[in-house]
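Supplementary notes for students who missed Thursday's class. We covered one full example, reproduced here. Read the sequence, then the structure, then the short commentary at the end.
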Amino acid sequence: MVEPGTIIDSMYKVEKVLGSGSQGTIVYVKTISSKIELALKLIKVSSEEKEHLKEILESVKSEFSIIKSLHHKNIINVYDFGYDAKLDKYYYTMDYLNGVDLKKFYNDSLGEDVFADVAYQVLNGLNYLHSNEVIHFDIKPENIIIIDNDGELTVKLIDFGLSEIKKSVTDQSGTVRGTIEYIAPEFFLDPTKVSPKIDLYSLGIAIIHATAGESYYSSMSKKISGERLLQALNEMYDNNKQLLSEFKSKKIKYFISHLIQKDPGTRISSAIEAISVLNSTFGTSYPVPNIFHTTSFLNNTKFILRDNIFNNLLKIHKITNQKKGGKTVFLYGPSGSGKTKILDQVFYNITLSLEKIIRMYLEDNTSENFLIGKLLLRKAYNSFKNIVDIEDEYQRLNKEIDSIAEKEQDYFYIFDDVINFLCLCSDNKNNRLTLIFDNFERYDQESVRFINRLIGYNKEGCLLIIISLTTDRMSQSIEQSYKLIEYDPEIENIEVPALSFNETERAITYFLGEIGNVPENFNKLIFDYSVGNFRTLMTFFDGFIQKNVVSYVGGVLFFKNKENFTKVLKRGSKKSVKSLIKGLDENDVNILILLAITFNKLTIDEIRKFIPLSEFDLKKALSRLVNLGLISGHNNLFKVVKSEVKDYIFSSLKKGTLKKFYLKIIKLDQDDKFYRSAVRVIK
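Structure (token representation):
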């Protein structure tokens, strides 16, 4: 039993035990460094399960990384997953909620208004989970927490998704394990039929039991043989119906009866439908939430789009851990291409493998008193202090950095000592350290100097360093720094380009699914306007829902508003066309003019006939124009497609420039050489 005062994983101090159950113990803790209040669950792993621990951990990693990415006001936030060697237990941390569960909160004397408020918030949270393809699978009174803040109620779902890790509540012999009174009947007939309807059924039963004041079926938690299962289910269902009939409120009885239909075909099919029934039953006007949630969709580990890059980074991590020497990887690409998302998933994967990784965020990077070095020291010390004898060296380096700051000396002289400290921590195959530096283009000069030194040292070191760089936001100093290492054969450069048309189509299909009545050029227009920008694409999806471009009707998404569709796409442009073009150099402008005037899409070889650039420089220029959204580059065929870009070019062209291009384009081996608007301008 964990006692108050116990230190868990060198980071959390137990203040009190909150509860204990079949899956583990939950304790109230404070972080040692900053006294942040959290709840921490110690996961119970039986001796039988330890034999399959590796498989269980892989399953936990997959599910936990998804759960960690979900953020909603009616769902508890989950933070870190780890392992305490002294306790020999795995754990995860989450918000500490100062509230009561549904069983302690509910009774039949509660008013209908309070009932509706709580039910709506639970359904709002369930809709969010279901829209992210997560079934809670363990809805019961203990997992619904109500916080009363001066009469304003906030409902939180806890333990969501974690029961899905084991994928089934039955073993190979068909014996049911654990509490069964809240699980929908169809699951026992066919365990593959897992759907949102299971959670809705569980909610109905949870409300009945909470209002009754106790669970009537604790005896059913024991193993029940397959022969008695159907009989037990029928008995429980009849008893639940009897309890429901004793409710005083006809409205509450009517609403719950829709949730607990034994036949899933007649049961409410979604949380959104349940909210509609709630509003019509109680005369309320709770807003019906979107069925889609862009933020969590963007973070969901099932949706990376850059699977090849992600898997390549994991492969590099594995190889680096198995051999001597260090490795540095640059992940580069335009703004909004999805680099940070890839690094998020790499970070989650390595963290959940209980391996050592440190990630430096933008706010970590300032040259004030060499903060990047101090932060790296502190994070490495907290990760390795129980594994490696580093206490004395850590204290010495901190004093040395403070002394340099006081004397206003150059921090360069402490760089190697800090790097040696990182390698002292990491110089072990079982405890190799990965460092992630995100948004390198925004780092200050002191941080850049340090990282350049770290990269050089690491060639003979023992670290895996992954650095992300946004190529269209580099300052001159960062660009010069990158040029020095860009062609270093010992440094791996991995490009994250703008999304291709196929990747954009995958995103549309994944996010929106099958759409009824969709225009023929729907995907093409989205690609042309998003120009493969991951972030812009997410903005479009949000806009389509908010502006009623598409709407969810009877389980099918329909395209409804072409005018708003066009408005959302055009509003997605961040800068005016004029300001973008004015920021281009002469060669870029000439490429843009060429691709606006010509009728057909041009290949790189055709463009080189007009623009005096090497193939390498031309490809970089075209990539730049694609990323700015000024041209389309589908299948390596390039063209200006946006009417506002063409209009600006034609209105600003001088006669001499137009004549020069006309004389060159007329020589093209194409039947239709000029775009029709260009013809009018020429005439």
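Commentary. Residues 175 and 227 are 10 Å apart (CA to CA). The longest strand covers residues 12-21. If anything here is unclear, bring it to office hours.
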